[in-house]
Amino acid sequence: MIVVVSGVGLVTPLGDSAAQLSEAIQQRRSALRPSDELARLPSPLAGRIERVDLRPWLVRRKDRKLLSRPAQLALPAAGDALGAWPGEREELGLFLGIGREPPDTGASEPALAASERDGRLCPQALSSRGRELYPPLLPLLTLPNLVLSHISINLEIRGWNGTVAGEAAAGVGALIEGYYAVAEGRCPAALVGGADSRVDFGSARDLYRLGRASPTRPPAEGAVFLLLEPAHAAGSALASIAPTCRSRSRAVEPAPHWSLTGDLGAADGLLQLVIMMLHGRWGELRVSDDEGAELGVALGAPPPLPS
After folding, report:
1. Cα–Cα dist 24/258, whole Å
2. Which ranges of the chain have pLDDT less than 70?
3. Residue 126 has what DSSP assignment?
4. What is the domain extent for residue 123?
5. Which pLDDT score, from 0 to 100, does residue 254 have?
6. For residue range 246-283, what is the model confidence (pLDDT) as tens digits?
7. Which CATH number characterizes residue 15's domain?
8. pTM for this predicted structure
9. Are residues 190 and 228 in contact, defined by beta-carbon separation less than 8 angstroms?
10. 151 and 97 inside one domain
11. Is residue 205 helix, strand or coil?
């Protein structure tokens, strides 16, 4: 079965549409800006997104406070990629690549301070006074699976689904899972994407400590989603796509990112595929996950669709 990309949704530091991204690339416009929060790190540069409009996508506006930053980025990108897809959303697949669990930015400090006794964490105090002070919504902002849950709830998607966690390969891993779900007939189409935010101090600090960020590869945030459909059922096609490898045979370097956006983490590999599509560069993209497993995806020219 030939599987095609029939929709794209973007929330990136260089724009929220393929047209905006393409124009920024042609003009070699940089999205990197100094951040006061990162001033103590090797580089203060980061690819931040100034504003995300969630109003068209949230079922209830008050739920915004439940969304982590990756979820805020992912929801509009997923909605744009899905567009006016006419199929039954009860059967639509949803596969998401997400980055590492974000660090606590200080919300739990009062609970931990109240649980300290003689310089040590006291389990009894933590289960009493500490528990009373612990923010009840904090787990909802840090658990990676909840990003997919918010997309599912607000876009009413209830088919096959899965979350892949990791670095640049996470989004590509989600794409591969979605490809097989469509190719094997488990769902009529699949929404696949990656979302990550690495621009807060804790996340950026950890990336520099792990050697995954540098002044020439600054952290960024963003979300990229693709809609995959069988070629015979798609109303339009931007490219054909298929996995080429998924093995543990050897490690490869992370995919080269578009330097003017910064490193989008779990969304970075998918961003490269979109840039390849925009430029008509058909070929293979290979990335590696956190443990050195190799993932490959072939992108081809869109096939002729049935009339």
Report:
1. 11
2. 102-105, 247-258, 289-292, 307
3. I
4. 107-141
5. 47
6. 765 554 444 445 578 899 999 999 999 999 999 999 99
7. 3.40.47.10
8. 0.89
9. yes
10. yes
11. helix
